[in-house]
Design goal:
The complex is a heterodimer of chains A (494) and B (412). Chain A is an alpha/beta fold. Helix content of chain A is 46%, strand content 12%. Chain A contains 20 helices and 15 strands. In chain A, strands 13-12-11-14-15 form a five-stranded parallel sheet, with helices on both faces. A four-stranded parallel sheet of chain A has the order 4-3-5-6, sandwiched between helices. In chain A, strands 8-7-9-10 form a four-stranded parallel sheet, sandwiched between helices. Chain A is globular and about 75 Å long. The chains are: A alpha/beta (494), B alpha/beta (412). Chain A: This is Nitrogenase.
C-alpha cells in the first residue's frame, strides 16, 4: 500500500510530505501492452480525436484582445468559455488576464443572450471603463443565433440614456464571431485581426511611413526581439496585439490602482491610423493574414504575409522586405547579430547535423521551425500541424525540397497519431509544446519546448526564439538538450 | 468522452490535480505518463458539418473506436456541452447502444455549460444523473455489487474527496487504522467497479459538502445508508472526524483507537506545526475557494494562529454562508461570487497578508503585493489529514515569509 511509507515516518519533518516520500504507485490497466488497431491510428480514419494539439476559436480572439491597451474581451457564452481560457492564460504567462463573461444560463439558451449582453456590457463599461471591448462569441451563442450587432446597439442606447451621450466616447467595440466548431484558436486570432482592423482602421489621406505588424501567437520575449530588430533597422513601426507589456508585467511595488490594468498594449489610436500605413506585415500566415489582406483590399496598404521570422532564412526574408519597402539599408548591427547566429551554428554543427527531429504545434510555429532545423542540418521526421493549414504545408514542402528531406506531415491530425509514429521510430529530439512532455519521457527523447502552450517551465515567455538573437538562444536550447541526452561529458568540451 | 468542439475537451485535459494510480501502457514495458494526471483527451471534436447534421452518429463511432483502442477500459462517461446539447444529440441513446455493443458500462452525463450558475450545478447534475443510472445498471447487473459474504459491518464510502494532489494518502490510513474498510471514494483515485459498490456501504463519510452531499443523501433515501459530515482539514477537525465516525459505530474499542490515532498523529506533526505557528501567528488571511473549504479552512487558519479577515466563494449556497458566518469573527467581510473588481476592493479594504485562492486570481493579487496560495489544486499537497496539515502550513509559510515581498516594498 502506498500509504505505508508515509505512516512509517514517526515525526513529520518541517518540509512535510515531499513528493519523494509520497511515492504514489502505478497500476497497469492491462497485464501488458496492447497496440491499437492499425487502421485506427491515422486521425483521418477515426471519428474520435485523441489528444488534440489545438484549442477553441474564442481563445485566439481573446489572445489578440489582451494585446490591446485597456481592452477587455466580453465572451458571449457560458462561464466555462471564460474560466478555462483564463486558466490557460494564467498557466502560460503567470499573469492576470481580465476577461468578462455573459454568463449564459438556461434562459439564455431558450430566449437568446440579449439580456446577458446588454446588462453585461453596461456593467463592464461602468466598473472597468475599458477603452475597448471585444465581443467574442462562442459555440452556444452562434448555435442559438444571437444577433450581436442589434444587441450592442441596444446596449449603447440604454447606456446613453442612463449615463448621458458622453459614455459613447468612452469605449470602442469590436465584434468577433468565433464558433469553435468552425476552426481552432489559430483561426480565432485570424478573425480577430481582421475584425479589429475592419472596425477601427481609417484612412486620413495623409500617408505615413509606419510599418504595421500582426505577430500571431508570438510570446512577449519574441515581440521585444522583433521590436529590437526594427529599431536597429531605423523604421517607424507599430506592433498590433502587442502582449509584451500586458502579459508580462513587473511587480513594481504596491498598492496598484484598481481596477488593475496592465500598462502596455497596442493603443486603439494605432489601429485607427493603420489605414495610412506604408505596409502591413503578417508574421504568422495562419494567425493574422486575414487582417493584413483586408487592410490591403480596403485601403491598398501593401500587405506582406511572411513565415514567422525564426531561423536565418526566415529572418533574412523579413528584414529584406522591411528594407525594400522602407528604403533603409540593413545596418551593420543587424549583420553582426546574424553573424553571431551563423557562428553559433558553425560551432555546433557536429551536434545538430543529421539528428532526426520530430515537431508538433501550431502551423506557423511548426512551418518556421521546420526551416530552422533544416538550416541546422537536422532531419525532420514526423511533423504534426495541430490545426490543418494549407499555407503551413506549402511552406514545409518548399523547405523540404530545398533541403532534400522527406518527413511525414500530419496536417490537422491529433497527437495520438503523431505519438504512435514516434514510438515506432523514435527521433533524436522533439520540438513541441508542453503537451509533448509525456511522449518525450515515455520514449526517452529530449523535448525542446516552443510554441503554444508552454506552461511547465519558467521564463519561456521572455526568452525569444525569433530574430537572429532569438535563433541563437533557440539553437543553444536545442544543442544543450542534445548534449544532456546524447553525449557523455568527455565528448562535450572540444 | 467529451462530446463537443475541440476546446471543451482540450481545457479539461490534465488541468486540475485529481490524481490517480491506474495507467495504460505506452509501449511494451513502459507505463504511460510521469505525472498522475489523466494522460489522454478523448473528444468528438465537432466540426461545422457535425453541428449542422447532428453528432450522435459521430459520437457512437468515436466511442466504439475509443473502446477498441483501449481494451483495458472498464467503462466510459460521455459529457455533452453547450453546442451538442443545443443541437439535441441524444447521448443517452448512444450510451445505451455502445454499452450493449461492448458489454461495458457507459454513462451519459448531460452537462451543457449554460445549464447552471457554475460548476456547482454540474456537480449536482452528475450526482443525481449518475445515481439514477447506477441504480438502473445495478438492477441489470446484480453481480456488480458486493456479494453478501464479501460485506463487512465496517464498509464505508468516502464521499466528496477528489484526491487533489494525493489528499487521500494521509486520509485513508486514518480510517483504516480505525478498523474500517473503504470500498469506494466518490471520486478520488476510484475505479468504475468501486462506484458500483457505493450502495453496499454501511456508512457514508462526506467530506466536500457542496459537490457530493447530493449522492450521499440519495443513498440515504434509497438504501438507508446514514451519513456523517466531516472536515478532514486541520488538526481539530480531522480529530473530530475520527471521533464522530467512531461514535457512529458506537464501539468502545473503536473510540479508544480513535483517541490513540489522534494522539499518535498529533505527536508526529506538532513539532513542525508549532514551528510554523510561531512564524505565522497574527497574520491576516482572506479565503476564496469552493464553498465548503472556506468554512473548513477558517478553523485551520486559526490553528496556525492566523486571523481570517475576508471570506468569498463562487458557488456557496445559503447553508454554506450560514456555516461561514457561524465560524468567523464579527466584522469579517463576506462576499458571494465576487468579481475581480470586488476582490481588488477587498484587498484595499482588508489588507490581508495572504490570499488563499485559485490559479486565475492568484497572479492578479500578487500584482498588489499580496502573497497567494493555489488553494484549488494546491502548491505541493496533500493538505488534508494530520500529516497534510504540515504541507499546508509549509506552503503558507513559504508564501507569506518569502523575502520577495519586502524587497518589493523597499523604496528604490
Amino acid at each position: 500500500m502506498i500509504n505505508q511509507i508515509i505512516n512509517q515516518v514517526s515525526e513529520v519533518p518541517l518540509e512535510g510530505i515531499t513528493y519523494k516520500k509520497l511515492r504514489p504507485g502505478k497500476k497497469p490497466l492491462t497485464p501488458e501492452y496492447i497496440p491499437p488497431p492499425p487502421e485506427l491510428v491515422p486521425a483521418a480514419k477515426r471519428a474520435v480525436c485523441i489528444d488534440p494539439s489545438r484549442t477553441c476559436m474564442p481563445f485566439g480572439a481573446m489572445w489578440a484582445t489582451l494585446g490591446v491597451h485597456r481592452a477587455i474581451p466580453f465572451v458571449q457564452g457560458a462561464q466555462g468559455c471564460t474560466t478555462y481560457v483564463r486558466y490557460t492564460f494564467s498557466r502560460v504567462f503567470r499573469e492576470p488576464a481580465s476577461i468578462a463573461s455573459a454568463s449564459f444560463h438556461e434562459d439564455a439558451a431558450v430566449f437568446g443572450g440579449r439580456k446577458n449582453l446588454v446588462r453585461g456590457i453596461r456593467n463592464l463599461v461602468c466598473r472597468y471603463k475599458p477603452e475597448l471591448i471585444a465581443i467574442v462569441t462562442t459555440c452556444s451563442s452562434e448555435v442559438i443565433g444571437d444577433d450581436i450587432q442589434s444587441f450592442l446597439a441596444e446596449a449603447l442606447e440604454m447606456m446613453e440614456e442612463e449615463f448621458g451621450p458622453e459614455v459613447l466616447d468612452l469605449t470602442r467595440f469590436v465584434v468577433v464571431h468565433t464558433p469553435s466548431f468552425a476552426g481552432s484558436h489559430v483561426e480565432g486570432y485570424n478573425r480577430a485581426a481582421k475584425e479589429f482592423l475592419k472596425a477601427l482602421s481609417r484612412r486620413s489621406g495623409q500617408p505615413s511611413e509606419d510599418l504595421y505588424f500582426i505577430p500571431g501567437f508570438l510570446m512577449p520575449g519574441d515581440l521585444r526581439e522583433l521590436k529590437h530588430l526594427l529599431e536597429l533597422m531605423g523604421v517607424s513601426f507599430h506592433v498590433l496585439f502587442d502582449i509584451s507589456d500586458t502579459l508580462d508585467c513587473p511587480l513594481v511595488g504596491m498598492p496598484n490602482r484598481i481596477p488593475y490594468y496592465p500598462p502596455g498594449g497596442t493603443r486603439v489610436e494605432e489601429f485607427v491610423r493603420a489605414g495610412d500605413a506604408r505596409a502591413i506585415f503578417a508574421l504568422s500566415p495562419d494567425a493574422g493574414a486575414a487582417g493584413a489582406k483586408w487592410l490591403s483590399r480596403r485601403y491598398q496598404v501593401p500587405a506582406f504575409v511572411l513565415p514567422m521570422p525564426l531561423g536565418v532564412g526566415n529572418t533574412d526574408r523579413l528584414l529584406k522586405t522591411v528594407s525594400e519597402i522602407s528604403g533603409r539599408p540593413i545596418p551593420e548591427a543587424v549583420r553582426w547579430e546574424r553573424g553571431i547566429l551563423l557562428d553559433a551554428m558553425a560551432d555546433t554543427l557536429h551536434y545538430t547535423m543529421m539528428k532526426r527531429v520530430a515537431l508538433a504545434g501550431d502551423p506557423d510555429f511548426v512551418a518556421a521551425a521546420t526551416r530552422f532545423v533544416c538550416e541546422l542540418g537536422m532531419i525532420p521526421t514526423y511533423i504534426l500541424v495541430g490545426t490543418k493549414s494549407a499555407s503551413a504545408a506549402e511552406e514545409i514542402w518548399k523547405t523540404c525540397e530545398e533541403y532534400n528531406c522527406q518527413p511525414v506531415l500530419m496536417n490537422g491530425s491529433d497527437q495520438f497519431e503523431w505519438e504512435y509514429a514516434l514510438k515506432q521510430d523514435p527521433p533524436d529530439l522533439i520540438l513541441g509544446h508542453s503537451r509533448c512532455v509525456n511522449i518525450s519521457r515515455e520514449i526517452r527523447v529530449p523535448l525542446v519546448r516552443f510554441g503554444f502552450p508552454v506552461y511547465d517551465r519558467i521564463g519561456y515567455q521572455r526568452e525569444p526564439i525569433v530574430g537572429y538573437r532569438g535563433g541563437e538562444r533557440f539553437l543553444a536550447r536545442i544543442v544543450n538538450a542534445i548534449l544532456d541526452h546524447h553525449y557523455p561529458d568527455d565528448r562535450t568540451h572540444q | 468522452m467529451i462530446h463537443a468542439p475541440v476546446g471543451c475537451g482540450y481545457y479539461t485535459w490534465g488541468t486540475r490535480r485529481h490524481l490517480g494510480d491506474v495507467y495504460n501502457w505506452a509501449a511494451p514495458g513502459v507505463l504511460e505518463n510521469e505525472a498522475h494526471h489523466r494522460r489522454h483527451c478523448y473528444t468528438t471534436a465537432m466540426t461545422e458539418q457535425d453541428i449542422i447534421f447532428g453528432g450522435a452518429e459521430k459520437l457512437k463511432r468515436a466511442l466504439l473506436e475509443a473502446f477498441r483502442i483501449n481494451p483495458g477500459a472498464q467503462g466510459a462517461i460521455i459529457y455533452n456541452t453547450c453546442s451538442t446539447a443545443l443541437i439535441g444529440d441524444d447521448i443517452e441513446q448512444v450510451a445505451r447502444e455502445v454499452s450493449a455493443e461492448v458489454g461495458k458500462p457507459v454513462f451519459a452525463c448531460a452537462s451543457p455549460g449554460f445549464c447552471g450558475v457554475s460548476q456547482s450545478k454540474g456537480h449536482h447534475e452528475f450526482n443525481t444523473q449518475f445515481y439514477r443510472w447506477l441504480l438502473d445498471y445495478r438492477k441489470k447487473h446484480p453481480e456488480l455489487g458486493l456479494k453478501e459474504e464479501e460485506k463487512t459491518p465496517y464498509d464505508v464510502n468516502i464521499i466528496g474527496d477528489y484526491n487533489i494532489d494525493w489528499d487521500l494518502v494521509p486520509v485513508i490510513p486514518l480510517f483504516e487504522k480505525l478498523g474500517l474498510r473503504i470500498i469506494c471514494v466518490f471520486t478520488g483515485n476510484a475505479r468504475i467497479r468501486d462506484l458500483f459498490r457505493l450502495p453496499d456501504a454501511k456508512l457514508n463519510i462526506v467530506h466536500c459538502q457542496r459537490s457530493a452531499t447530493y449522492i450521499a443523501e440519495l443513498l440515504r433515501e434509497g438504501y438507508e445508508i446514514p451519513l456523517v459530515r466531516v472536515s478532514l482539514f486541520g488538526m481539530a477537525q480531522t480529530a473530530k472526524a475520527l471521533r464522530d465516525v467512531a461514535a457512529w459505530f458506537g464501539e468502545k474499542e473503536m473510540m479508544r483507537r480513535a483517541e490513540e490515532i489522534i494522539e499518535e498523529e498529533t505527536a508526529a506533526v506538532e513539532p513542525a506545526l508549532s514551528w510554523y505557528r510561531e512564524r505565522l501567528s497574527g497574520k491576516r488571511v482572506a479565503i476564496y475557494v469552493g464553498a465548503p473549504r472556506v468554512w473548513h479552512w477558517v478553523k485551520v487558519m486559526e490553528e496556525l494562529g492566523m486571523e481570517v479577515v475576508a471570506c468569498m466563494t463562487t458557488f456557496g449556497h445559503r447553508e454554506d454562508y450560514e456555516k461561514i458566518v457561524q465560524r468567523v469573527k464579527p466584522g469579517t467581510l463576506i462576499i458571494d461570487n465576487p468579481n475581480e473588481f470586488e476582490i481588488e476592493e477587498m484587498i484595499e479594504t482588508c489588507r490581508p497578508d495572504l490570499f488563499l485562492t485559485g490559479l486565475k486570481e492568484k497572479y492578479l493579487i500578487r500584482k498588489f503585493g499580496v502573497p497567494t496560495l493555489n488553494s484549488h489544486s494546491y502548491e505541493a499537497g496533500p493538505y488534508a489529514g494530520f500529516r497534510g496539515m504540515v504541507n499546508f502550513a509549509r506552503d503558507i509559510y513559504q508564501a507569506v515569509c518569502a523575502p520577495v515581498w519586502s524587497l518589493a516594498r523597499t523604496e528604490f
